Amino acid sequence: MNCKRIVPDALTCSNLLCGSVSVFLATQGAFVWAFVFILLGALFDFFDGLSARWLKVPSPIGIQLDSLADDITFGLAPAMMLFCFLRPILGWWALLALLMAAFSALRLAKFNVDERQHDSFIGLATPPNAIFWGALCCMPISIIAYDWIAWVLIGLSFVSCWLLNAEIPFFGFKNFKNQKVEVLSLLIGSIILIGFCVAKAIATKHIEFALFSGTAVILWYVALNILFAIAKKK
Predict the structure, then answer these.
(1) Are 164 and 225 in contact (CB under 8 A)?
(2) CA atoms within 13 A on the CB side of 62
(3) What is the mean pLDDT of residues 137-152?
(4) DSSP string, 105-174
């Protein structure tokens, strides 16, 4: 048995465990910690692929295991966070938020068989979608001052389900040479948004505003990709 193969698989399983803990914490209303474990899962997800390439031990089983772990951490966990966040307002109607887990699984399955997605993505990747919702659910429940705001969030979750599987090109960091303008635009905008959110958190002494930078950055990322997609069609 090649012991090197254990390393990426162990990192992938760590990702899955982080997602599982995040789901449990969401049911307990510990949204900040649930989001922290999503971020930890994202860290393990980054290093499992990196370690597989570095150790030269790519594995078909590892690819499938990675998708299973990602659907827990970046599909079920943020969906459960949104469900638990909205349930006090919407009751069982909040179960609609769990559709995001199913559409995340569909997105991951399509990614595994789509030859176009080696250097970039077609549709929103599951990690940024999870960061968007995880950070948003860390905000105080008081942000839902009216029932209609909760329904707007459900509507936005449907938009997420569509974006995950939409035929819209999304840039990544693997193909930096050919997408310098896109990546630099993302980085500059992200620095500004993070700085504003952190300043707000310091001024109000509420860490939630700092975490909200995750939602703001992903929203900027989605907007950039849509704008560049429209510009390329012209």
Answers:
(1) no
(2) 21
(3) 86
(4) HHHHHHHHH-TT-SSSEES--HHHHHHHHHHHTTS-GGG--SHHHHHHHHHHHHHHHHHHHSS-EE--ST
Q: What is the domain partition of the chain in residue ranges?
A: 3-233
Q: The tokens of 87 are what? A: 């349930």
DSSP state of 57: -
The tokens describing 31, both together, are 């949204």
59: phi > 0 → left, psi -120 to 50 → alpha, else beta; which? beta
By CB neighbour count within 10 A (0-12 exposed, 13-18 middle, 19+ buried), where does 220 fall? middle
- One of 1.10.510, 2.40.128, 2.30.170, 1.20.120 is the CATH number of 3-233, namely 1.20.120
- In this predicted model, what pLDDT tens digit does every residue of 23-82 receive, in sequence order? 999 999 999 999 999 999 999 998 887 777 777 766 777 778 888 999 999 999 999 999
Q: Give the closest residue to 87 by CA, choosing from 74, 76, 96.
A: 96
Q: How far is CA 78 from CA 103, 138, 196, 208, in A?
A: 12, 11, 24, 16
Token pair 């569509």 is found at 162
d(CA 124, CA 171): 9
Q: Which tens digit of pLDDT belongs to each residue from 190-230?
A: 999 999 999 988 988 778 888 889 999 999 999 998 888 88
